[in-house]
Amino acid sequence: MYGNIKKMKSTTTLQLTPREKEIIQAWASGRLSHEIAAIHFISEHTVKQHIKNIYRKMGVKSKIQAALMYGLIQQKLAS
């Protein structure tokens, strides 16, 4: 897992749609799929579809990997 984080390009999050970025930000803050759906007025199924797209675009297989990578990339972009 950590090897992938080190190799990941910071441009990956730029490839996420604005909605996908909202979803992963909500994840990172500990929200559940049904909570994210309610907040954004979308179905839980739609949230799960966004999650699949995030996994594919980021090349990860878990919510934790995606949240960690997203957090690291945000830190890198901020500095």
What can you tell me about this protein's structure?
- With 79 residues, the protein is mostly helical.
- 71% of the residues lie in helices and 0% in strands.
- The protein is built from five helices and no strands.
- The longest helix has 16 residues, at 63-78.
- It starts with a helix and ends with a helix.
Overall, the morphology is globular
Q: How many DSSP H or I helices?
A: 5
Q: Could you tell me the mean pLDDT?
A: 82
> Helix/strand/pairing class, anyone?
mainly alpha
- Name the beta content range: under 5%
**Largest β-sheet summary:** none
Radius of gyration: 12 Å
Unreliable stretches (pLDDT < 50, length at least 5) are: none
